[in-house]
Write a structure and sequence with these properties.
Elements (H helix, E strand, L loop, with lengths): L1 H6 L2 H9 L11 H10 L4 H9 L3 H10 L7 H10 L3 H14 L3 H8 L5 H17 L7 H14 L5 H17 L4 H11 L3 E4 L2 E4 L3 H11 L12
Antiparallel strand pairs: 1-2
Helix pairs in contact: 3-5, 4-5, 5-7, 7-9, 8-9, 9-11, 10-12, 11-12, 11-13
């Protein structure tokens, strides 16, 4: 914690607070936190202790140090309950959950939560799973259900939930070949996804444009995706 305090940056802290972070935090840049990861390998218990401090910087670092394979459903629930802004919910907890043995259980549970940050984590976990795991891991029927749920509800969901739903749509369209075309069709149907970021209106990344870009970078077929001008 002393090391984190020394790395704290007032300007960075102001930005984090503007984006929804809550005290306590030092304002350590994520790039600096990632550098610390190299210095503390295999520190699972220390990661758990860091997360329990409630300090945002320490909680982010905890996600980098923790052994996801050792996380249990009660621990994951504790983590998601404590994730009070999107840097922790969408990145720290969602990544750890997606890498854990209980990924599906937690993602299915969290997307139905009434709390915005928990539902947000659930959808982010789904998006990471699509990125981390082979297509064969998933039941096509379940992914189809999630796509239909997005089609119907995305525009009325809570702010950060909309953002993570949009990212899930991008993940499926880019990487889950059985339903890639359907994800593109839904993305075209729902159009722009507007969220609030740092007190201002913000348009989330276009799912269609993002899918085309990712597929192009992977050398995949993109002809079926409409061109966005």
């Amino acid at each position: 914690m002393q090391e984190l305090a020394l790395l704290g940056n007032d300007a960075c802290k102001k930005v984090y607070l503007k984006h929804g972070a809550q005290e306590p935090l030092f304002g350590v840049r994520t790039t600096d936190l990632k550098k610390l990861q190299v210095n503390y390998p295999n520190h699972h218990q220390q990661a758990l202790d860091l997360y329990c401090t409630g300090n945002s910087d320490a909680m982010y670092l905890a996600g980098l140090l923790v052994d996801s394979e050792l996380m249990t459903p009660p621990l994951l629930d504790e983590w998601v309950q404590a994730a009070n802004w999107y840097l922790l919910s969408e990145y720290t907890v969602a990544v750890v959950a997606a890498e854990s043995p209980y990924r599906l259980e937690m993602a299915r549970k969290w997307i139905d939560a009434e709390e915005e940050m928990i539902a947000n984590t659930g959808w982010a976990t789904w998006a990471y799973m699509i990125g981390f795991l082979s297509n064969d891991y998933f039941e096509e029927e379940e992914i189809n259900y999630l796509l239909e749920r997005i089609r119907i509800t995305i525009q009325v969901e809570a702010n950060r939930v909309r953002y993570s739903m949009n990212n899930f749509l991008i993940a499926v369209g880019s990487l889950y070949s059985p339903l890639s075309e359907k994800a593109c069709q839904i993305a075209e149907e729902i159009g722009q996804v507007q969220i609030e970021l740092a007190g201002r209106s913000y348009i989330a990344p276009s799912a269609l444009t993002s899918i085309a870009s990712i597929q192009k970078s992977l050398g995949m077929e993109t002809r079926r995706i409409p061109v966005i001008v």
